DNA sequence: GTCTATACCCAGATAGAC
DNA sequence: GTCTATCTGGGTATAGAC
């Protein structure tokens, strides 16, 4: 009862007619922009789009650093340079902003992972590409990784349904691919589920636990060399696990 | 500036003369108990100890589920069955309670890991024991793991100094052990730092990401069998990485 | 779309009686 | 040690003028 009241106490979801999703799909309904009859520059983004992107960019960093409850919309607004009332004009509530942040994270993520569904590639190349892609994501979008990680660790109270719908099927598909390889004798007999968990854990940790890693390594941030060495070891371990000699 | 004010804005640390640490070291100053002249049962814990333990037990779960800012001391108090004012009598502030929770987590952790510093053991046995111990911790104290993980992911704003002092030296020592083995030719030439990161990531994830794992596996919680299979794969991968045939 | 003002609630923490 | 009462601040969100 008290746990319930901790999170998800918002009942109002979307009251204002705002776009909540349209980053990678420019052909989606352009309600607000269509209403705007004033001629605008064609190539550039509209002001609304630019501000939305700005807000999202700062929001993902702050949610990653302070968590959902630990981040106030006022502090995000301050970073962006707008009033918090104005921010609430673009994103009707904190929870909507948060969900949009996670939506964008997953979109970027799944985009990168989808390209690996190529059935024609051999296990060695596919595994290597997979690990590289996930490591690159940890490197280039660490904040997104961290927001996602914190949401999952806390039990995915807000975003759980989306994870179930968007992430889990993808993981299951990856596992099925491993199983197919095993059946075909292309890789050794290993537990495909736990192999995937291992790959995810190792790659993800270079975003989530980079604070601890930099302390161990005694440097300010992880370098390209660190990621290269990480990739080398992880690929080695995974290929060794599936008994593929390089 | 606004980020700073997000966390760690507490200036008052410990105003009341309360014990803040005495779980594993019973010979520490017994200020409150000594003042209490009434004869008490010798074997059992004092009421204060019992209540403190109760509070900590519930606190670690709630911090794990909702994060630091997301957890109110009122909700913890409610779970324990005391008033929040009373809780504040035992732990002078939320931050002190939080730090104590993390202290206890690390104590239990380091306890388990210290026993592995046995120099007489061979790499195979030591690595296997290490992985087993960390996996057992993930299984038996998932909340502690998660609180720690969230703290690290968020940049360790509150507990960073303790991590630097308590955890990092231990990790460095483990890395040094790996390096020694490599020099002695006992294991293959691998990057010892990233090998340790990999072991930590894989074992830790069975606490931190168990929500996602149970969704993939389609069950309510991870079973003993899951942990056995995880152990088997992780040990295999690590031993393969250091080129030890079993 | 942006502003001022404000409603409303809940949090952490303290004071002081018992 | 536990209670009632309260202070103080911050948070999300809304109303309404411009």
Structure description:
2 copies of one chain form a homodimer. Chain A has 246 residues and is mainly α. Chain A is elongated. Helices cover 68% and strands 0% of the residues of chain A. Chain A starts with a helix and ends in a 5-residue tail after the last helix. At the A-B interface, helix 1, helix 3, helix 4, helix 8 and helix 9 of A face helix 1, helix 3, helix 4, helix 8 and helix 9 of B. The structure holds a DNA duplex (18 and 18 nucleotides).
Keywords:
homodimer; 246 residues; mainly alpha; disordered N terminus; DNA-binding
What's this, in brief?
Two copies of one chain form a homodimer. Chain A is mostly helical.
Describe how the helices and strands are arranged.
The structure is a homodimer of 246-residue chains.
Chain A lengths: L1 H5 L24 H5 L11 H24 L2 H8 L3 H7 L3 H21 L8 H18 L1 H12 L6 H24 L8 H17 L1 H8 L6 H18 L5
Helix pairs in contact in A: 3-4, 3-6, 3-8, 4-5, 6-8, 7-8, 7-10, 7-12, 8-10, 10-12
Chain A binds a DNA duplex (18 and 18 nucleotides) through helix 5.
Average pLDDT of chain A works out at 85
Residue share in β-strands of chain A:
under 5%
- Provide a count of the helices of chain A: 12
| H/E series of chain A | HHHHHHHHHHHH
- The radius of gyration computed from the alpha-carbon positions of chain A, rounded to a whole number of angstroms, is 21 Å
- Rough shape of chain A? elongated
Give the strand tally of chain A.
0
Uncertain segments of chain A are 1-42
Task: Name the pair of protein chains with the most residues at their interface, and give those residue counts.
Answer: A-B, 66 and 67 residues
Classify the helix fraction of chain A into a percent range: 55-70%
What's the end-to-end separation of chain A, in Å?
Answer: 55 Å
Main beta-sheet strand count, sense and barrel state of chain A:
none
